[in-house]
Amino acid sequence: MAVGNQAQQRAKLRRAVGHQADTALVSDDLLDDALENALLEVNRQWPLQSISSFETVADQQTYSILPAGAYRVLQVYWPLTCNSSDADSWWDGFQREVSMLLTEVDELGTRYPVEPALAAAYYRYRTWLDRFQTGGVSISPPDTVRLMPVPGSSGDDVYFLYSTPRFATIEDVAEAQERPYWAYAQFYLHNVLATGRGALQEVRSPLGVQMRTRASMAHKEAAQLWERRFQGMLPALRSSRNSP
């Protein structure tokens, strides 16, 4: 338990914003709001990925497949069964032609094609057949999947990758995400304290004693600081457009 229990986290957060014993301005409910929002944001930025599957239904194209509590569908793979005997025959014949045009160059059986373009054609058509045997899929975030073409039979397995929360409660936050968790909690709390009663700028007593503060500005500046720190800890963007 890297971050402590709920009471320990409340006390730590009060100290972090300079209100160690202030339960009037910084109530337990406000602290819980900050901690819960930090948990939600950490879960959203560092989700887990899980794999599951569902079965097709004949003549049904659209499916809502996301398990309860999950975030969104990331990728879908629909392996079709190739029912075209012509395609199978063409593939077998193409492989035989390739074998006939390969020349053996040593006693170990190493061979190379007489025409290099033949190898390029081989892999090009193999890719085409792989695509021919994989169904098209359209994902409408967060959970709707459309299969193309419309399934003609029931019971075919469709596999999908989806994101889920990493931590169930605030006490489950692990050490690897502890720093961004605290950064976002402090950003949230300072942002709230910059408004309302925390934004008090002047106090005047009946006896004429006057006091000015810049509490609102101080909390606003602190909120901006912790927001920048949190953003600096976010995971790097993936290099591939197709990556989940």
Write structural notes for this entry.
- This protein is an alpha+beta fold and 244 residues long.
- It has 2 domains: 6-47 and 166-232, no CATH class; 48-164, no CATH class.
- It is 39% helix and 19% strand.
- The chain is built from 6 helices and 10 strands; from the N terminus they run ααβββαββαβββαββα.
- It has helices spanning 6-16, 28-45, 85-100, 116-132, 178-193, 215-232, and strands at residues 48-55, 62-64, 72-77, 102-104, 111-113, 136-140, 144-148, 157-164, 202-204, 210-212.
- The chain has a 3-stranded antiparallel β-sheet, with no helix packed on it.
- Helix 2 (28-45) crosses helix 5 and helix 5 runs antiparallel to helix 6 (215-232).
- The protein is elongated, with a radius of gyration of 30 Å.
- It starts with 5 loop residues before the first helix and ends in a 12-residue tail after the last helix.
- The model is unreliable at 82-86 and 239-244 (pLDDT under 50).
